[in-house]
Amino acid sequence: MPSRPHHRRGRTAAATAGVVLAALLPLHLAGGATAHANADPSPVRVNQIGYLTGADKIATVVSPSTSPLPWEVRDAGGRVVASGTTEVRGHDAASGDHVHHADFSSVAATGAHTLHVPGVGTSVAFGIEDSSLYPDLAGEALNYFYFHRMGTPTEARHLRYPAHAHDALHPGDESVPCYQRWCGDERLNVRYSWADAGDFGIYAVNHAISAWTLLNLHERYPDAHPDGSLNIPESGNGRSDLVDEVEYGSRFMPGLLPSTGLASHKVHNHVWSAFPTSIGEENAQARSAQPPSTNATYAVARTTAHLARVLEADDPARAAELWESARDAWQRAESHPVLTYPNAPQAEGGGDYGDSKTTDDRYAAAVELYLTAGALGDSSVGTYRSAVTGSPHYGEMGQFDWAEVAGAGTLSLLTVDNDLPAADLARMRSGLLSFADSVIGVLGNEGYPAAIPGSSRYPWGSNSFIANRMLVLGTAHDLTGDTRYLRAMHRSMDYLMGNNAMRLSYVTGYGAFAETDLHDRLAWGAYPQTPFPPGWLSGGPNNELINDNATPTGQPAAKSYAGPDTAPQAWGSKENTINWNAPLAWVATHLDRTAHELLEDGGSGPGPGDTEPPTAPGTPTVVATDTGSVTLSWAAATDNVGVTGYRVLRLDGGARTPVASVTGTTAVVTGLEPDTVHTFAVEARDAAGNVSPLSGSVTVRTEAGGNGPGAPGATCAVAYRLTSQWQGGFQAEVTLTNTGPTTLSGWSLNWDFPGGESVSNMWGGTASQVGGRVTVSPMDYTANVPSGGSVTIGFVGSSPGTAGVPTAFAVNGAACAVE
Question: Which superfamily does 44-129 belong to?
Answer without folding.
Answer: Immunoglobulins (2.60.40.10)
